[in-house]
Amino acid sequence: MSDIPIEDLDLAAATAEHETLAAAVREHERRYYEEDAPVVSDAEFDALVARLEAIEARFPNLKAESPTQAVGGKASSKFEKVAHARPMLSLEKVFTEDDVRAFVTSVRRFLNLPEEEAVALYAEPKIDGLSLALRYEGGDLVQAATRGDGRVGENVTANVRTIACIPRRLTGAPDLLEVRGEVYMGRADFLALNERQAAAGEKSFANPRNAAAGSLRQLDPAITAARPLRFFLHGWGEVSGPLPPTQEATMRWLGEDLGLPLNPLAALAPDLDAVMRVFGALEAQRALIDYDIDGVVYKVDRLDWQARLGMVSRAPRWAVAHKFPAEQAQTLLEGIDIQVGRTGALTPVARLVPVTVGGVVVSNATLHNEDEIARKDIRVGDTVVVQRAGDVIPQIVRVITEARPAGSQPFVFPDHCPICGATATREEGEVVRRCTGGLTCEAQVVERLRHFVSRQAFDIEGLGEKQVKALWDWGLIKGPGDIFRLAKTDAESLTPLRNRDGWGSQSVRNLFAAIEEKRRIPLSRLLFALGIRHVGQRNADLIARHFGSIEALAETCLGDEEKRAQALAELQDVDGLGPIVVEAFGQFLAEPHNETVLRDLIAELDILPPEARAADSPVSGKTVVFTGTLERMTRDEAKAGAERLGAKVSGSVSKKTDIVVAGPGAGSKLAKAAELGVRVMTEEEWLALIGA
Ligand code: IVH
């Protein structure tokens, strides 16, 4: 973000900066709302929006195309869409007592209130979760929807029915009642969930909010049911029948009479002093409350006033969010460690002299990536400002440059993996640098081996993630070639597998047989199994077809650098293979460790050339989509069969789709096919067509 004072910007500079900022805000919103995986702290995001708004205040024409005019997040395509009867709004943010005073003044001015008329505000914690609209008809919970973009959200009813504290039936409710509130996860529950996730080898969540969002937006309600989600009421939408006259009385009615979960920390503040006391009290309690709150929301208590105040663009005029300042402290940056993730991403982590930030001792902070280090010019030996915002992972906000020791040097990000020594590369347009050591890098090998034996790759029965991890831990397999020597290694071992926990004689025999069976493997599967970046099944197939055999591939691509360059140049010309794929493939081969792995596999395996494709089959050149349950074959078999006959298999229906093969339970794809007039057939009809 630029720090040029707004007054100094001319229209051209403002337009350019606005465009960059707007794109960044949209991207962060997408990551936050749609992927539940933000990459910046709330405070950093707020700063970007604040700068965007400041530019727009001076150049209002820029507003038209700005993310400031919409509530973030689109409804995800996973769930059915639900239009909100009344929009779900967002809140204006304020940061200081003066801002709160200005809010009250603007309310007063708008309502034309006399000086002596007090404006009571209903204050409650701003919970860091996600908002949810619950629709009750005749007292029954009939629908639950996320906010989405404020007008259209996602239907998550089945999942919400599994949340224990949300009543499925209300007694004494009006015919129609839509209540709104926040779904969240407690901090202790979040930590326990992450531990369970890690133990199961599943992804862990960055913070309780993401955990709540990820848990709610599950296609399988059983998963949501197993996640400790909670809910607090904070408002309502459509309601039939009259409401009490104030926010407080209505909340009490909903909470105490109807039994919806009401936050006990909410309070009515008759004047500004009282408001600031509530704010101070909640800020002081913040670390002790078992869930994340990032501020206090104030709502004008009188509902008739709320109605008169109405809303502007995306937020009500009668409510405001008073955000807590981020908790910060200064400390010394002792070092920058580079961690290598399971997929090879190099992540810099700041090693700090331990310091207490908001009641928690912090000794590490994320540095995100090398650009971030360069942008903030963070150097080892610097005194830095550390911040814990709503996030669990602390961040480095800035360097106290005045305290920088003489002779300090900018941080040089390594271009080799600190674990295995392989080259670490960064693709154009990417912020992450990745180790190319793949199958030979200790940080990645278990993940890579798991991929290597997975269903679409070698598909070795009885060799799942757990077994791979165990075999690796015991030193029985270090790389993929070792899998095919396992029977021999085991026979020579003093503690053979059959005597180890979790392995019986029969299962070991079965495993060895399953491995033997996969010694014969099509070239494309082998290429896919290697886990080369960007080389998925389709690209692996294209590469395999181009070379025609492993011998041809080895002859041109292994060993001789010049020959390889030539081979890669030719690969570029293959229809469907982009330069990014070819570059990634080339980088993989250029790494000596990888060449060793590949040569080792060639020696162990019987690698089959690609089958010739039938050019004149009735489906050759056609794009096919399989949807619903197939009864005579698995999805993979259907796909492989279609591809063998020269068809292209796609996962989604579009204008380019020629045939949709629909089994029982087909849903939105079938509807889309009907809408686009695409030919639809049953599995039987498909089998008849291809003559199977
Ligand atoms: S009131 C019309 N109250 O904050 C006002 N929102 O930044 C609508 N939130 O979308 C919201 N705690 O998801 C309200 N006590 C609270 C809240 C709260 C958290 C969330 C909510 C809203 C977002 C706006």
Beta-sheet strand percentage? 15-25%
Shape: globular
- Give the rounded overall mean pLDDT: 89
CATH superfamily of the largest domain: DNA ligase/mRNA capping enzyme
Main sheet makeup: 7 strands, antiparallel
User: Helix proportion of residues, in percent?
Assistant: 25-40%
| Small molecules (ligands, ions, cofactors) in the structure | 2-(butylsulfanyl)adenosine
Overall tally of structural domains: 5
Global structural class: alpha+beta
Number of helices: 25
Tell me the Rg in angstroms. Answer: 30 Å
Highest-level CATH class of the largest domain: Alpha Beta
The unreliable regions are 72-76
And the CATH topology of the largest domain?
Answer: D-amino Acid Aminotransferase, Chain A, domain 1
Distance between the termini: 60 Å
CATH architecture type of the largest domain: 2-Layer Sandwich
What's the β-strand tally? 26
